[in-house]
# Entry
Amino acid sequence: MRRFQFPTWVDRLLPIAGAGVVFLALYVGGAIYVGDAPGTLDVGYMPKQPVPYSHAIHAGKLKIDCRFCHNTVEVAGNAAVPPTATCGKCHSGPVDGVQVKTAIHTASPKLSLVRESLTTGKAISWAKVHDLPDYAYFDHSVHVARGVSCVSCHGRIDQMEEVRQVAPLSMFWCLECHRNPDPNLRPRELVTQLDWKPDEDPADLGKALRTEHHIDPKVNCSTCHR
# Structure
C-alpha cells in the first residue's frame, strides 16, 4: 500500500502557521496585560501629570467649586478637562506688559508649562485617570441632575494632592448603585459640596429624592451599552 504524503506546498505553510501562533499568543497576552493594567482596573491608579495640580489646595483649601474647571458636567456627558485659559484666570503672566493684579504664582517654575501653553495655544496633555471602556456610555449631566455627587465616584477629590482612582468602575460596581441609588442621592444644589453630610437618615432622604427625581432603579442594558 502506498503511504500518504503531504503535498510539498504544505511545507511552505509551516513558517506562516508558526508565525500565526506566535502572533496570536502575543495578541492575547497583550490584551490581558492591557485589560489588567492599573489604568484600566486598579483602584489607586494615580498617573503622573505634566503639571503638579493640587485638588487639595484648589478644591479643598480654596473651596473652588468643581464646576469652575469642569464646566460641562451639568450639560454634557463628559466632564470637560479645563482649557489652559481657565488656569490663566488665576496664574497668567503680564498682559501687554501689565501684570494682572489678581494673578498669583505667575513666576512659579511648576507652572512653566501652563505659561507656555498660554503663549503658544498648545493644549497641555493631561493624563486621564478615570477611563471607562469605549463600549460603556456614561453621562455626567444625567447623574448630576439626579443628585449623584462627584464624591460617589471620585471620592474626596478635595483632599487629594494628586488625583487617584478610588472606585473600581466595574459593571458590578455601577449596577450596585443603579439597583440601590438611595445612599448616593443628595439635593442637587449640594452635588459638588464634597464634605456634605445629611442631617437626617440617609436612607429616608435617598428614598424621598429618588421619588422626587423620578429615578427608576430598574437597569436596562441599553442605558450603558448603546
Remarks:
- The mean pLDDT is 87.
- The chain has ten helices and no strands.
